Amino acid sequence: MTLTADDILDRCRSEWLFRDLPEAEVDDMVAELRDHLDDASGAGRPAAAVVGEDLNAFASAWAAERRAERPRRRTPRQLALHAYSGAAALLLGHHLVGWSARVDVVPGSVAAIGLFAALMSCTPYWRALLHWPLGRWMALCFGFSALLLALFLVGGAPVLFSVPLWGTALFCLPAFAVAAASRLRPSPDQTFTG
After folding, report:
1. 124 and 179 fall within a common domain
2. Long-range contacts for 65-72 (Cβ within 8 Å, ≥24 apart)?
3. One domain for residues 171 and 128
4. pTM score, two decimals?
């Protein structure tokens, strides 16, 4: 089966996203590959002359090369940001769903926030889920089941501390401030001419 240039670009893009490359970098790689494919098409060569016979191996090798060019040092920062967002979601969710003015934080809640932060920081998010083989899905389901059982057995005892509604609002205030500032700040693409 002969793949069109658009098929090649789509498959490479999904492979690069699966490899957890940043989207801006993936867009650059897609543009560069599009140029190479257009050049090959203009010269009368097939797309296989550019990418080879094994498209996944080509995309994986290119992703590994790009990853080797830039060391990944964002994980501790991402871990902290994901833990913060997980804690904020847990607190807000408890206030909204339980209609309570106070949230009791128990060890199970802390473990759930830690698991959320670790999964979100160390996996390529939802992009990888669609490409996982059955064995990984089964391991993930078994692991989550074991974790939920452990959290259930820990239960609501002991209460580590309680957070009032105003404490949750104060905890979420920095996130709201950052979101508002990022919306008000002009993007780097916008240029103002006087």
Report:
1. yes
2. 66/21, 66/25, 66/29, 67/19, 67/21
3. yes
4. 0.52
What six digits make up the tokens of 38? 């257009």
For residue 25, give both structure tokens.
């970098």
Predicted confidence (pLDDT) per residue in 148-186, tens digit: 666 666 666 688 888 998 998 999 898 888 888 878 876
| Residue 2 tokens, joined | 């002969």
Are 124 and 82 contained in the same domain?
Answer: yes
- The domain tally of the chain equals 2
- Which residue segment(s) compose the domain that 19 sits in? 5-69
